[in-house]
TrEMBL record:
Keyword terms, alphabetized: Carbohydrate metabolism, Isomerase
Superkingdom in the source lineage: Bacteria
Gene3D superfamilies: Divalent-metal-dependent TIM barrel enzymes (3.20.20.150)
Originating species: Microbacterium ureisolvens
Protein name, entry field: Sugar phosphate isomerase/epimerase
Residue ranges of every copy of the Xylose isomerase-like TIM barrel domain listed in the record: 27-255
One GO MF term: isomerase activity
Keyword Nucleus included in the entry's annotation: no
Length: 264
């Protein structure tokens, strides 16, 4: 299933635009694009909502016919337990997280201990926990952690763009994670020379125009055959003004959806 994530609305949610888009507004925009899944990922206001606000947001998603997934950072048992509760509110079948959070950088051994403590509740609830590939933890270490724990509810959120920052090749990341993927983050990426030809900037690109060999990911991971959702997000830098930035963000989203549909 194709989905949109909060990062596809990064600037539209931002207080740098005159009228920031609400969570329900993002749900509505997702439905207008004919997309059935929304991943609320690293969306700070979610954790500030009271019970009534959460119930109302979940009801809005249901009324629009959207499937919801959630995303957070960290593997502390309390954090994972809280997001399992939120998954119950939204009827979410997946929680994406990362090994590190702003407040915690566990060793692999500590992370394994915490995950083993949290996973029985996920298993009992039928909710998947997907740990994202990113530059702070090697893909080999992350896959090794998932393999050792060996829970049917624990897997990988595959984002090959992130690991370039630790000089891993995206294809190698795809190869290593292929047997464990439960979610895919979809965005393209590229390098550009900085002014003066000194150094490079690594950032986002319109889908299909950058360095991401997405057909290779489809061939290797087979997300569609395996029931793995493909969630659209972007690395989009601020443009000259709010109007231009938001227009570009929406265009990148439209183009990415079209790209994914064209490869089905």
């Amino acid at each position: 299933m194709i989905g949109l994530g909060t990062y596809a609305f990064f600037w539209q949610h931002s207080d740098q635009v005159p009228q920031p888009l609400s969570l329900v507004g993002a749900f509505e925009a997702t439905r207008e694009l004919g997309v059935d899944l929304f991943q609320i990922c690293d969306y700070a206001p979610l954790e500030q909502m009271d019970d009534a606000e959460l119930t109302d947001a979940a009801a809005a998603a249901r009324d629009l016919g959207l499937t919801i997934e959630l995303g957070t950072k960290g593997v502390e048992p309390g954090r994972l337990a809280r997001f399992l509760e939120l998954a119950g509110v939204f009827g979410a079948g997946l929680v994406r997280s990362m090994m590190y959070s702003p407040d915690s950088r566990p060793t692999l051994a500590q992370a394994e201990e915490w995950l083993r403590a949290a996973l029985p509740a996920y298993e009992a609830s039928g909710v998947d926990l997907a740990l994202e590939t990113y530059e702070q933890v090697s893909t080999a270490d992350l896959v090794g952690l998932v393999a050792r724990i060996d829970s049917k509810r624990l897997g990988i959120c595959l984002d090959p763009a992130n690991v370039v920052a630790r000089l891993e090749l995206p294809r190698h990341c795809v190869d290593q994670t292929a047997g464990h993927v439960k979610s895919v983050h979809v965005k393209d990426f590229a390098f550009a020379r900085q002014p003066g030809w000194v150094g490079f900037t690594y950032g986002g690109a319109p889908m299909g125009e950058g360095l991401h060999d997405y057909p290779y990911l489809l061939e290797t991971v087979k997300p569609r055959e395996n029931g793995v959702n493909e969630v659209v997000e972007h690395w989009l830098s601020w443009h000259t003004d709010a109007e231009t930035t938001v227009r570009t963000e929406r265009e990148w989203t439209r183009r990415t959806i079209e790209y994914l549909r064209s490869t089905s």
